[in-house]
Amino acid sequence: MPPSQGIPGMEEEEAGGGPGRRPSLAARPGWGWPGPRLRQERRGRAGSPPCRISPPCRISLSAPCPLLPRSRWLSVETRTRPHPEIPEMAKYTRGTVTAFAPFDARADAEALRKAMKGIGTDEEAVLTILATRNNAQRQEIASAFKTLFGRDLVDDLKSELTGKFETLMVSLMRPAYIFDAHALKHAIKGAGTNEKVLTEILASRTPAEVQNIKQVYQQEYEANLEDKITGETSGHFQRMLVVLLQANRDPDAGVDEALVEQDAQVLFRAGELKWGTDEEKFITILGTRSVSHLRRVFDKYMTISGFQIEETIDRETSGDLEKLLLAVVKCIRSVPAYFAETLYYSMKGAGTDDDTLIRVMVSRSEIDLLDIRREFRKNFAKSLYQMIQKDTSGDYRKALLLLCGGDDD
Fold this sequence. Notes:
Layout: E1 10-13, E2 37-40, H1 70-80, H2 105-116, H3 123-130, H4 135-149, H5 153-160, H6 163-173, H7 176-187, H8 195-204, H9 207-221, H10 225-232, H11 235-245, H12 257-270, H13 279-288, H14 291-305, H15 309-316, H16 319-333, H17 335-347, H18 354-364, H19 369-380, H20 384-391, H21 394-404
Antiparallel strand pairs: 1-2
Helix pairs in contact: 2-3, 2-4, 3-21, 5-6, 6-18, 6-21, 7-8, 7-9, 8-16, 11-13, 11-16, 12-13, 12-14, 15-16, 16-17, 17-18, 17-19, 17-20, 20-21
């Protein structure tokens, strides 16, 4: 992303609330008022924001600063400016796992072979290497492992490790480009369908990411993802999934307030004012309108109806469709907050949903896990690190804590 887009000049503006409204859902985990809206304030020459390195400087940040090397200029900008709210789904990369330095794929491969060779396995050595390298580096290690020893690293991990720890290490080794396609394939494979996985992935990914998932699925499994999903689902749940699979959500290119008003009224008439529910109206609007547009629609809907859109969906729909529509709304509001809630409920109460915990921790570790940690601490009054520490054990816990990247208390 060019440095002139995103961080510079972005300022928060609180979304106001008027009198006479019903209580918000802020007290419910994961539900609440939309986050702050952002506005771009144009400053400096030719509408560019001023340089942040020196207050008097008016040099555009869209061009390299003549006073500092580009790498240092970017690091200074990042340090001196607080991270803003994310204006689009998955726009910024704020992961906890980054490229390890100094990196030596051959040395890591040799260390892993030593850790798994002979009787017994040094799990500590395995997790220390795999949980602190990014995915691209792990692929280099796997290549070096095969070159040096003629062995497949993933096969060795499956042979030497067991249980949840094995699942986590093997998930870390899966190439990033195939991770979502693999998860979806296994969600619809065999008897029964894992609707939770379909909902989580298709509700939270950007249109570009969905297009990539479909292409990878076709290439890797020689099958059409849409055909596979429609063969395993039905009803309005299936229709919403198909809409999301088209990846045709409107781009964020300004908000038409007249259309905002119209969509809010349509949703109100399709739910609260109707005997029964017109699910198709919810599917079309929530599945195709832009992120910025829908955020304004949610505000307008609250003004018109006195309800949060989540409350209406909760009352007017049920089952898998309800869960999918709620997931879409939560991701429109904030993808990190959605995943913070997903992680919280994967560990809350008796037992742990380890499949969800592993899938989210691995898939978001290089994308936005820092933002997820922040939302987790804000919404649940405890840190993600502490909850993982309390709810898991052994080498599995050690690896998850490494991926988590630190405590926020």
